[in-house]
Amino acid sequence: MDAMVRELSYAQAIQEAMAIAMDMDERVFLMGEDIGVYGGAFQVTGDLVERYGTERVIDTPISELGGAGVAVGAALTGMRPIFEFQFSDFATLAMEQIVNQAAKMRFMLGGEVSVPVVMRFPAGSGTGAAAQHSQSLEAWLGHVPGLKVIQPATPYDAKGMLLAAVADPDPVMIFEHKLLYKMKGPVPEGYYTVPIGKADIRREGRDLTIVATSIMVQKALDAAATLEAEGIDVEVVDLRTIRPMDKQTVIDSVKKTSRLMCVYEAVKTLGIGAEVSAMIAESEAFDYLDAPIVRLGGAETPIPYNPELEKATVPQVPDIIAAARDLVKGVR
Amino acid sequence: MAGASKAVTDSRANLPFVYRQYSAEQLREVLHKMYLIRRFEEGAEDSYTRGLIHGTMHLSIGQEASAMGICMPLGEDDQITSTHRGHGHCIAKGAEVKRMFAEFFGKTTGYCKGRGGSMHIADVAKGNLGANGIVGGGIPIAVGAALSSKMMKTGKVVVSFFGDGANNEGAFHEALNMAAVWKLPVIFVCENNGYGMSTSTARSTAVKNIADRAAAYSMPGVIVNGNIFSEVAEASYKAVERARAGEGPTLIESKTYRHRGHSKSDRNRYRTKEEIEDWMSNRDPITLFENELREFGFIDDKGIEAIRGAVAQEIADGIEFAKTSPSPEISETGNYVYTEQA
Fold first, then answer.
1. B266 Rama class: left (phi>0) / alpha (psi -120 to 50) / beta
2. Superfamily (CATH) of domain B31-260+271-327
3. Is A3 within a domain?
């Protein structure tokens, strides 16, 4: 019998996944700043402290480096910590533990250990929090062998990928766009996983492949609905994992549509778009391209406070529509 | 104390801690291990000079009593995190020198299968969670291991070794604070050898004693002469008891000295020949311990010679093992980045 499917928000889906993980495995516990009685800055942990107690839902001091290191050490010695950063920007304070320790420990010790830590990063702009609380730094971590980096775009994937992350023996970094927390969608009850390293074709189409990540998946789908009325049939690929990247799904899609656009919120240069574009240029799909590849990414500026400026720094639905038209009509 | 009669025990009543606490056999084994650390590092240095080991290494020659004293009260299940100057800690926690040499030679028989080298030497089976190339990197990890011990109720105590340089890293302060707030079974051991690379503690550190910083985190701060084995072991013993009783962490500052430079690139321009000579001639930890053992009647010259001979043989065998062990295949470069999944 199929599990009961309800409408849950993205934040509720993550919370449910954490509760299931703690129910299933007593080694799983949560750490982070103000995740206990406060419920987390974005209310993702919510009332979990009431259900699981302060020994399994641990409020840390404001010590991102130390906290991340404690999570790494606990994972190294048999526990399964889920560490919440209050904002993904604060990963900058903990890069040492993430990049030098968590990512490399297994390798440096010749496979004698593993570090099954999950780190959650509320990311992205759109909340008026300005330059130090709005960044999209997933490509930074995606550059590091030893880490797995995922960006679920729906409540369903948020739950399934978090449960996959907890079950994974290696460090998994989850970037959760803050504007997605309130997004609702169907989520089955109970345990299920969505595999890390597999992209998802969210909309099939013939004329153009849009590879999108995180919140840009929904924006690409919204753009595709408009473009459909104009006779432009868009295929939307939700990358879901940026390391290890599901190259084959993207290659196959581009071979079908012969056009590629990458849409992501992080700063445009040296990012996911460059990686996907280069990957296609190096693949057999290159010969199928009918037009230059297009990247739509964040502006080359910090995220501004003013709401109109803030919106203008990241790709919006009209930007995607305009770029898609130009690409399909050969303007570019 | 197996074999020690009441008369013998009584005769030790006025001796320093370790001579009351441990058997003659155990103490002779400590001397053996101190020699093993010294000769291992001399052997590694010699192999480096001969081009058999590449990269760099950080020698702890002169700090052997600190490593041995801290590890003396630890059980095999207890854990440590170590530093870039970690060869002594590794041997003190029970590692075999042949597998350490093999690691330094980059061979598959090494503790890290040739992937880590000197700076990441580890022996997980014996509770050494690894040396660390990042100053202060292992300190929060040790706190995490202590959190595991508390949550899983294993009774394990975790020791975090670090140097004086690390006490000015943020990780040190964040980790000590959390360990104290959560009363974790962890012991912070600062081996203060006077210099963070070339910068003396006087020039780098606002407090006179690093142990003074314990007050900021409401834990005992203990200063010991790191070159006197008994002093170190006694402080460690008390800290272990405190940790096992659930009373929380201790900061031990073990004041010591490294005879060699920071690493192989060091020209020793920041300290005088006289200073180095003084530590080597007058405060060598092995000489001090050996003299005490002899004075208190725990060993004679013949016994010392036997230890030196056995160590020389172990070192020679270890280097030979490393030389003749296979190197990893180039095709295996990508191994161990992620856990292999069936």
1. beta
2. Thiamin diphosphate (ThDP)-binding fold, Pyr/PP domains (3.40.50.970)
3. no
Of A66, A72, A145, the CB nearest to B337: A145
Please give the Cα distance from A46 to A28 (Å, whole number).
17
- Does any CB of chain A come closer than 8 Å to the CB of residue B226? no
Residue B161 DSSP class = E
Residues 6+ apart with CB under 8 A from A162: A14, A17, A18, A21, A82, A118, A120, A152, A174
Provide the residue ranges of all domains of chain B, joining segments of one domain with +: 31-260+271-327
Interface test with B, best of A56, A77, A99, A117 (most B CBs within 10 A): A77
What pLDDT shows up at residue B1? 38
Domain with A44, as residue range(s), is: 8-188
Query: Which A residues, 175 through 194, put their C-beta within 8 Å of a C-beta on chain B?
Result: none
Query: Using CB atoms and an 8 Å cut-off, which of residues 234-263 of chain B contact chain A?
Result: none
pLDDT of B340: 86
pLDDT under 70 in chain B at which residues?
1-10, 342
Closest CA to B235 of B188, B179, B193: B188
- Counting residues of chain A whose pLDDT is more than 90, the rounded percentage is 98
The domain tally of chain A equals 2
SS (H, E, C) B176-222: HHHHHHCCCCEEEEEEECCEECCEEHHHHCCCCCHHHHHHHHCCCEE
- Mean pLDDT, range A169-181, rounded to an integer: 98
Looking at the fold, whether A119 and A243 belong to one and the same domain comes out as no
Are the beta carbons of A68 and B141 separated by less than 8 Å? no
Q: CA-CA distances (angstroms) from residue B83 to A72, A280, B59, B285, B289?
A: 17, 43, 11, 20, 24
Return the CATH number at A156: 3.40.50.970
Predicted local confidence at residue B3, as pLDDT: 47
Structure tokens at B28: 């002779």
Tokens representing residue A14 in the block: 């993550």
Q: Does A330 touch chain B (CB under 8 A)?
A: no
Q: Active site residue: A16, A84, A133, A176, which one?
A: A133
Which tens digit of pLDDT belongs to each residue from A272-299? 999 999 999 999 999 999 999 999 999 9
A269 vs A289: CA distance, rounded Å: 22
- Annotated catalytic residue A177: no
ipTM of the complex model? 0.96
Mean pLDDT computed over A39-59: 98
Q: Check residue B52 and give its pLDDT.
A: 94
Mean pLDDT, chain A, integer: 97
**Interchain contact B183–A (C-beta under 8 A):** no
Compute the nearest-CA separation of A76 from chain B (Å).
7
Active site residue A64: yes
CATH number for the domain that contains residue A319: 3.40.50.920
At A332 the pLDDT is 57
Task: State yes or no: cis peptide before A315, omega within 30 of 0.
Answer: no
Nearest residue on chain A to B332, alpha-carbon basis: A110
